[in-house]
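Summary for the steering committee. The consortium agreed at its last meeting that each partner would contribute one worked example illustrating the joint modelling workflow. Our contribution is presented below. We chose a case with several input lines so that the handling of multiple components could be demonstrated. No manual editing was applied between input and output; the record is shown as generated.
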Amino acid sequence: MALLHVIVVGAGAPLLVGSLRTLKARLTGRRGAPVWQPYLDLRKLFGKTPVVSVTTSWVFRATPYVLAATTVVAALAAPVLSSRPPLGFAGIILVMYLFLLGTFFLALAGLDAGSAFGGMGSSRAVAVAALAEPTVILAVFALSLQASTTNLGGVVERLAGDPQLALNPAHLLAFAAFFIVMLAEAGRLPVDNPATHLELTMIHEAMVLEYSGRYLALVEWTSAMKLLLFLTLLANLFFPWGVPHVRTPVAILLGTAALVGKLAVLTTALAVLETSIAKLRLFRVPELLAGSFALALLSVTAVFLLR
Amino acid sequence: MALAGYVLAILLGAGGAAVGGAGMLGHVWHVSWPWLVPLGGLALEMDRLGGLFVALVGATSVPVSIYAVGYAGRERRGVLAYLVFVAAMLLVPVAANTMTFAIAWELMSLASYLMVVQHRTRESAHAGWVYAVMTHAALACWLAGMLLVGAWTGSARFADWAAPMSALDAGARSLAWALLAAGFLVKAGAVPAHVWLPLAHPAAPSHVSALMSGVMLKLGVYGVVRASFTWLGPAPVWWGATLLLLGAVAAVSGVLYALADRDLKRLLAYSSVENVGIVLIGVGAALAFQASAAGPLALVALVAALYHVVNHAAFKSLLFMAAGGVVRATGTRDLEAMGGLVHRMPWTAAAFFLGAAAIAALPPLNGFVSEWLMFQALLQNVRLPMPALNLVFTVAIAALALTGGLAVACFVKAYGIAFLALPRTESAASAREMPGSMRLGMAVAALACVALAVGAAGVVATLAPIAETLVPDAASVSTRGGLTVDVSSGFATLSMPAVAIALVGAFLLPLLGLTLARARPSPRRYETWGCGRLLQTARMEYTATAFANPFTRVFDFVYRPVARLDIDAHPDSRFFVQRIAYDNAPRFVVDEWLYRPAGRALRALARRAAAIQSGSPNRYLAYVLAALLLLLVLT
Amino acid sequence: MERLGAQLARQVRARFGRSLHIRQVDAGSCNGCELEITGLTGPHYDLERFGLHFVASPRHADCLLVTGPVTRNMAEALRHTYNATPDPKLVIAAGDCAGDGGIFAGSYAVVGGVSAIVPVDALIRGCPPSPARLLAGLLDALGRRR
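What follows is the complete predicted structure of the assembly.
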């Protein structure tokens, strides 16, 4: 079961990123690369000999593996295929702090090379991550209030029993807040442009400018897995119908199909969003995150009022 | 000679840890010498909570004293004060009456004052002065509170206070609580009474800073816990709400000021303010829950707070020890003058790294467990009946989440700027690793951090009975199989060993996979990519001020920074810029709005009152006559 | 355009046939070639559909697309960029200037052709080469038919 989780998340992530890129290309009038292009990129990267800067230390070379570790453990903890993930005891706080562990190491790796780009990327990345934290926890609070547990599987199971959930304003507000946090944490427009070449506009990319070969492959792969996990959390926590509560093969298959469907909707929405709006100025991003915090606060208030 | 003193301190610490440990597990005892000192005599009483704090003092003193052997073993100055300091701190939690408590507390404060001013610089003299004034103002506060309670209950022994105090009306109890809490909160370093912390902790030698931050602040928290839960009977809700809000403010402002600081030890001192704030959030939440008859939730919050107390002692002492090594090796506390130390001082760097990851509450280390427990306690506040209280809790949850994120940023900055990349000055380039005893002390503290993390279930199982002595009737935090922590019967569960094993396994998995597939060619070494520039020097690295810039801009309403830009041009032409100096230092709101006006008002008052000292004997005789007449009339 | 040796071509096709990350280096060009290269990313030529992709850092790149006669001031920078690129890598020179200095050949400021600084695997001639020519050259270097 654990292996299945890792395979689905690991193998599905490049496909997700590839389809997002192709969709964005089609929306802007181009043909774009095929949806399986990230797999080809990764395979090529694993075959290259990395170049490592002489000013770096063990932190630089350990970070890609740490990122892999945190994303894999988060994949084991998230209710991807069923409401009983392998690390069944995990709550969203554990998952969020696992991502923070990855950000911690990546930010240090950015500073390690001693270039101004890396330092700038690190500084901005930890600022965005820090400002997104209160929103995440409040959105979790709203969910856990309705489900009486912070355990992810528990939230999925208990919320699935309420068919009127999608109409609940508190729930929708929490979804909106979490969506904005997803944009911030996964480094998508309008917070960060993953396809930019201008270092002064980079947040996540600036930290990985020094990586090459297998290290870059791991960093890119785990970045895609992080996006997949965030979208999965958005899909399965806020719209928990279709997530099986048992672990029989048929149920898992149906659950995977439901997840693919939900992810397709979310990916399309994300592609449309990214092609419609421009990246925010860096010092407007805190305003966006403050707005998402206000949404989360409203969501919590709504839960209390509607009790 | 000094060496023997520190070795004695190690033994003292170990003994204290043993005695405290026995007390934690239930071996309570009491002993008294009524004839030794006036006003009640010397009385010691060990109970579970006292045992926890004695064990904490002792256990933290051991690695710090081992470290001190190498750090200060050659200097005679400060050894005696250190021993007195440790001994006094061991006595405070077991003091059973006002007199004993006051003696132990004063010894602790005096000893630490002597060590703060040990280096005999202007900075340490000022730090010592502020510390002495604040600590004695605090003493006046809580001593007044204790004497008041003593007068109302008719006994100076703490154990005799709970029953009579419960019978008094809320106003009197709240007055006593306010005095006691105010006094202890100053010692704990809660905002707005924290101003002595960022002055005293950097000025003191590093082993002393480690103990002051790691343990002495916790004794302030100990006083608050005793006053709120044990001595004054059942607490009303607003006590808890006040502590909760104070803790939230302290946590956020502490970490914000730490982020903006370029002095390594002052950064750690502000981080201590933040962590004390987190502990106060837990204590306040426990108090509020208990006052609202939600005993099980109070237990969870209290266990979280006590766990954080223990954790902070472990990782803060580790951080201060590592920082001391860095300061000793580079000769400076300024982050902007360090860099590249991970290559020159690998062990110290590893120790600081572990401490930084632990204090940033990252799994699988111990900071994460206590923060997780705290969240679980706060997230259940829906069971409280009052909406106003729900709002306060929501604010606290948001504050705790924000400090979690900001702490990660702060320690990325501290470790990244100090240790990584290239050295920024000559002294950083010629730094050397610390001697063995210092490394051993750091290693012991690092091991403690890891043990407290992986053994989370064991720690919770040990802390729960202690918390139950303060919040009876609850059983909401339990452990399963010695590995899993279970909060409120399934609201949340956590198995730290599983997380640790999963992380280590997932770390090794790609490594092993790539090695087996023979897809791990050795990397080629080359320069950092700098867009083709010809030279890489330390001037091109990111600075600490630059790293904190996004935060300084976003939170400028807190920092209210003053930017200074000095541009030196060539004497012959103002278009040839030779040097630019930029500084963006924060101003401290508490200093400007509270202490400076208060200081000015006090001085104005003193100037007016000085008119009494006219120097004329006739006037003094007139004062004596007036006082005599007044006494005769009034009595 | 000049071709790669047969064995190198096979290796290149195997490794990079379907995914090539290109870092464009301007070694003192007049920017005429850059304008044509920019056209490659638009909807008309769209090099992404062949798996080609421009990247910002040479560490991420498999191929350096160098334009311009290498000026003296850019010689060292070009060498740094080449050394910063991980192996295995290609260098494709674009434009007449990149080949032998073009119209700037012999100038006091020019070292003379990319091959004077770094080993070149392929050359796309033209002044400037049109986007179609550039694309054909890139695909030819990868051993793929359009």
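The two ends of chain B are 60 Å apart (CA to CA). The longest helix of chain B spans residues 295-330.
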